[in-house]
Design a protein that fits this description.
Distance between the termini: 67 Å
Number of helices: 4
Helix content: 10-25%
Largest sheet: 5 strands, mixed
Radius of gyration: 26 Å
Oligomer: single chain
Strand order of the largest sheet: 2-3-4-5-6
């Protein structure tokens, strides 16, 4: 996807651009291309950006460490303020809570692929479990493993034996 020059959005019908997405996103490893729609509407001093997209990703289960495929879906919207960036001449700058918003230059570019990439990354589940009943890694004690202890660890094995008694 190409970057959109923000003043060009004003020339679009209803000041809205609708972009069809059917491609992989750079930096996002998916099994299928990301498919969806991104809508950008110029509202004067801000952009109203909305998107619906989905793709299938291979994730690793946090319990059993097995790989599994998961559908990642995005249905979100965001307001991106249009304002000139403040000069960066100070080494330290106090940031107010209301300054913690996304903003772009009114004469700059909006990059829909970067915006969609960020939204897809936020949609990846933080707790990745392959299935609700996943038992995790099974730990079994094999008696033959304890017999083949490296002799350098013999002192530690003896201490472990003393502590368990």
């Amino acid at each position: 996807m190409r970057a959109i020059h923000i003043p060009q959005i004003l020339n679009a019908p209803n000041k809205t651009l609708v972009l069809e997405v059917t491609e992989p996103l750079l930096g996002l490893e998916t099994l299928t291309p990301v498919k969806g729609v991104v809508r950008v509407t110029h509202q004067g001093n801000y952009l109203d950006v909305a998107g619906q997209a989905e793709a299938i990703m291979t994730l690793a289960c946090d319990r059993c460490l097995q790989s599994y495929n998961s559908r990642i879906q995005v249905d979100t919207s965001e307001i991106v303020w249009l304002e000139e960036p403040a000069p960066e001449d100070a080494l330290e700058k106090e940031v107010e809570l209301e300054d913690l918003v996304e903003s772009l230059s009114p004469q700059g570019d909006f990059k829909p692929d970067e915006w969609l990439y960020e939204q897809m990354c936020l949609a990846i589940p933080p707790k990745q479990i392959c299935r609700p009943e996943c038992p995790g890694i099974e730990i079994t004690s094999n008696p033959s493993e304890t017999e083949n202890i490296d002799r350098r660890w013999a002192a530690l094995a003896a201490l472990k034996q003393q502590l368990s008694e």
